[in-house]
Write a structure and sequence with these properties.
Blueprint lengths: L32 H5 L9 E4 L9 E2 L14 H6 L3 E8 L2 E7 L9 E2 L3 H16 L25 H5 L17 H10 L20 H7 L18 H14 L3 H8 L10 E4 L12 E3 L1 H12 L3 E2 L2 E2 L3 H6 L5 H8 L11 E3 L2 E5 L4 E6 L3 E6 L4 E7 L11 H18 L1
Parallel strand pairs: 2-4
Antiparallel strand pairs: 1-6, 3-4, 3-14, 5-7, 6-7, 8-9, 10-11, 11-12, 12-13, 13-14
């Protein structure tokens, strides 16, 4: 069942650590350094806070409900622990039925979400859609004049939400000579390039992420918008820009006011900022596992938490309103031909639109799994070695286990 043995953490374990054990800006996404940095993301990166608010929402607990379940001869926790997991929380209804941690992670430590952040920002965008401030059929450049003439001028907001924008820019995490490494990651301030962090405003056309979006990203003229799903983080940064511009406040304050202060979170969260200190909508959020599960419950319950309406119901039903064109957009991308996803909609990965089963996913195996039919939310954080999220070998093992857990709980 397992694909990766969990070796003991061998970094940042002395005072001071040896040179070989030192986490740096350059190595913080490389395993095993990532096992430490993913739980301490503010050390190698710049961040801003997202404060919690209100009374803490406490879970009922019943961890006996999964005690008899075996998957390939292993307990649920053993499956996840053997496949690069750092944390696992399982909630059905309002009851926490499993909670486990590895690699120094615990209930009070925030973990990087990476691209699960996209789903959070998309969920909040529904407030603007419901109010009529953001129209899905309009171009992002109708709201952000700086995007006139860019690759995002010819697309709609819905194309951005579905990563169907037909961009010429390719997101490559492993080639140090790629545009991602040379331009996007340094602008995000989440990647290492010698001297990049010392760049000052005005010294380059591309300083922060907004500069990258408006001046660098070009359209692929061979791929019409809406034709093909091509995962590209630049879309989420456009959405984050839209949300901040229309709500007239930085994204960390948007998240605090719209969600984080309203779900009974136990802990403050924080979000990485780009070189211009703008919050990174594509992948900068950090939160504890239990608080992440609280957010998942908000989405599972279509925007209601603790009996109060927080986010629009219709918008949180929209991501599972999958059309044939959405399925086709994913099917024509060979990278996802063998995956379980049926579509990518509103920056959520859809597994089963009829069961309303879908996920937020981060690049190193961070997942918020939601199954409305079984009333289940599962959160797992990982430090998978490969920057490949759904294509990494550990990923389908955990996802398949999660689906079995959800069905098992529904039958109890």
């Amino acid at each position: 069942m397992s694909t990766t043995a969990q070796d003991p953490q061998q970094v940042m374990n002395e005072f001071p650590p040896t040179a070989d054990a030192q986490v740096t800006k350059k190595n913080h996404r490389d395993w095993p350094f990532s096992q430490w940095s993913f739980q301490n993301f503010g050390a190698p990166n710049n961040t801003v806070m997202v404060p919690r608010g209100g009374e803490i929402h406490h879970f009922a607990r019943d961890e006996s409900r999964l005690s008899e379940l075996r998957i390939g001869g292993q307990s649920v926790a053993e499956v996840f622990g053997a496949n690069a997991a750092d944390a696992l929380v399982v909630v059905q209804g309002d009851t926490l039925v499993l909670e486990s941690y590895w690699n120094g992670m615990d209930a009070h430590r925030q973990h990087i979400w990476y691209s699960m952040t996209k789903s959070l920002v998309s969920s909040i965008a529904g407030v603007l859609v419901e109010s009529g401030q953001l129209e899905l059929t309009k171009s992002p450049s109708d709201y952000i004049p700086e995007l006139k003439g860019s690759a995002f001028d010819r697309v709609t907001v819905q194309h951005v939400l579905d990563h169907a924008t037909g961009l010429a820019f390719e997101e490559n995490y492993v080639d140090p000579q790629s545009d991602f490494f040379l331009y996007y990651a340094p602008a995000l301030n989440m990647g290492y390039l010698p001297g990049a962090a010392d760049l000052q405003p005005g010294q380059s056309e591309i300083y922060g992420v907004y500069d990258f979006l408006s001046h660098f990203v070009k359209p692929d003229l061979q791929t019409p918008p809406g034709q093909r799903f091509d995962y590209n983080s630049a879309n989420a940064d456009v959405l984050g820009w839209l949300v901040s511009r229309l709500m007239k406040k930085p994204l960390n304050d948007v998240i605090r006011d719209a969600v984080w202060s309203k779900i009974g979170a136990e802990h403050d969260a924080y979000i990485a900022v780009d070189r211009a200190y703008m919050p990174v909508a594509t992948g900068g959020y950090n939160a504890t596992a239990r608080d992440s599960a609280r957010f998942g419950m908000l989405i599972r319950d279509k925007g209601v938490f603790g009996g109060e309406r927080v986010l629009p119901k219709e918008w949180l039903e929209h991501m599972v309103d999958v059309k044939d064109s959405d399925r086709q957009a994913m099917n024509i991308n060979p990278n996802y031909s063998k995956a379980d996803w049926v579509a990518y909609q509103d920056m959520w990965w859809v597994l089963d639109d009829e069961a309303e089963e879908f996920c937020a996913v981060g690049i190193h195996g961070q997942v918020i799994y939601i199954n409305r039919k079984t009333d289940t939310v599962m959160v797992w954080f990982s430090s998978q070695r490969d920057a490949a999220s759904t294509l990494a070998p550990e990923f389908p093992v955990k996802l398949n286990a999660a689906r079995k857990v959800a069905n098992y709980l529904a039958e109890q």
